[in-house]
Amino acid sequence: MPDLQIHPLTPDRIPDFVALFGPDGACYGCWCTSFRLRPKVRQAMTGDERREVMLDRIRRGPPPGLLLYDGDDPVGWMQIGPRADVPEWNNPGRVSSPRPDAPADDPAVWAITCFFFRRSHRGKGLTHALLAEGIAHARRSGARTLEAAPILGSRPKSIPLFVGPARTFQDAGFQTVAAVKETRPLMRLVL
Asked: For the whole model, what pTM was predicted?
């Protein structure tokens, strides 16, 4: 795909984010709030309320992730930023639970928590492009550690694949640091 561009999700790009996620908010109306809100709170909200939570987060800044464009069309998304920005990702017992050497309250410890691609752009290896730019973005922003909890295997129609495939992270140099669940390793890249 010759005309790919990746940009941080700043307030001026909100219309592109909304267009990418569609009227239902991608992934059953999540609007990328799954790791931002307690499950009971999130489940009690309407899709419009979840969308407003995320749009408010974008407006406050800094950018909570990156948008991938094919020409002028937004076609992909990766949520990336400090661990503290996604409090539910840090809960004890989760596969993504922080390790003592990379605490959630350290602003230099970042996480990649999810991906979303327009159906027409899935299965084309674009996760690699977003991940590469995410690593560069984290470095530029002062991160020293970048973590993810991707899924092992390559079931392209699997809903859990929103966390990304482990092979993509391995290819980028991430190493497994914990495996609370066999199919969801916590992986890390020291920047």
From this structure: 0.92
**DSSP 3-state of 96:** coil
Whether the upstream peptide bond of residue 15 has omega within 30° of 0, thus cis, is no
57-79 pLDDT per residue, tens: 999 999 999 999 999 999 999 99
Task: List own/partner pairs for 172-179 with CB under 8 A and 24 or more apart.
Answer: 172/128, 172/131, 172/132, 172/135, 174/146, 174/148, 177/99, 177/147, 178/95, 178/97, 178/99, 179/95
Is the torsion defined by CA of 85, 91, 94, 95 positive or negative?
positive
The total number of structural domains that make up the chain: 1
Q: Which residue has the higher pLDDT, 53 or 119?
A: 53
CB 146 within 8 A of CB 135: yes
CATH number, residue 109: 3.40.630.30
Helix or strand or coil: residue 71?
A: coil
d(CA 164, CA 149): 8
